[in-house]
Structure formats: C-alpha cells, structure tokens
Amino acid sequence: LKSTAELLQEFFAFYAKDFDWENEAVSVRLARRAVPQIPANLVMEKGKQHIAPSIEDPFDLNKTMTVGTKSCIDSLHEELGRAYDLCARKASLSELLEPWTAA
C-alpha cells in the first residue's frame, strides 16, 4: 500500500514527465488517460499555435473543460515540473504548498 506522499509524487511525475499533452486526454469518465474524442485545444498567441491540455467533459463528449492562454499552459507545465522536483528531493508539504508565481 502506497502512502499519500508517494501517490502525490507519482501524480506529479506522471503529468510532468509521462503524459503526452498533445496526443492524450484526461478522461474522468473512463478514469484513465485516453485518446481525445475531439481535436486538440489550440491556443493562438502571436500567430503561433500552442496545444492546451485536453480534459474531457464527462457529461458532454463534444467539448472539453480546457481553456487558457499560452502563459497559462506554460505555467501549468512549469508548476507540475516544480512540484515533481520538490517531491523527488523529499521537500516538506509546507514547501510544496508555498504560494508560487511564474518566473
């Protein structure tokens, strides 16, 4: 049986390192990762496309729950990586939960 700390570290490792944000969706309905049911969420900024995370709406498969800007997407990835690194070095929960702002 895994501890809560181990499960939290594995959560951050999965989303920071393993999850393919461009080709996978978070499926609450199926309780697993899945192929997106609709095309990827594209965010346009300064003429460039950026792919936002695809989080399936469990009640309406024709839409996703994802919205955001490129800076939101970048902050999400940065924070997941930061949390993973803190967990990997066995930082305290207090440190992990400290308020954080994007660089």
Summarize this entry quickly.
This protein has a three-stranded mixed beta sheet with strand order 2-1-5, with no helix packed on it. Strands 3-4 form a two-stranded antiparallel sheet.
Could you characterize the architecture of this molecule?
This protein has 103 residues and is an alpha+beta fold. The chain is 37% helix and 17% strand. The protein has three helices and five strands; from the N terminus they run αβββββαα. The strands form two sheets. It has a three-stranded mixed beta sheet with strand order 2-1-5, with no helix packed on it. β3 (41-45) and β4 (48-52) form a beta hairpin. α1 (4-18) crosses α2. The mean pLDDT is 82.
User: Beta-sheet strand percentage?
Assistant: 15-25%
Instruction: List the helices and strands in order.
Output: HEEEEEHH
Give average pLDDT, whole number. 82
The profile of the biggest β sheet is:
3 strands, mixed
Order of strands across the widest beta sheet?
Answer: 2-1-5
Q: Kindly, what is the distance between the CA atoms of the first and last residues, rounded to a whole number of angstroms? A: 37 Å
Number of strands: 5
- The helix count comes to 3
Q: Assign a percent range to the helix content.
A: 25-40%
Radius of gyration: 15 Å
Shape descriptor: globular
Computed structural class: alpha+beta
Low-confidence stretches: none
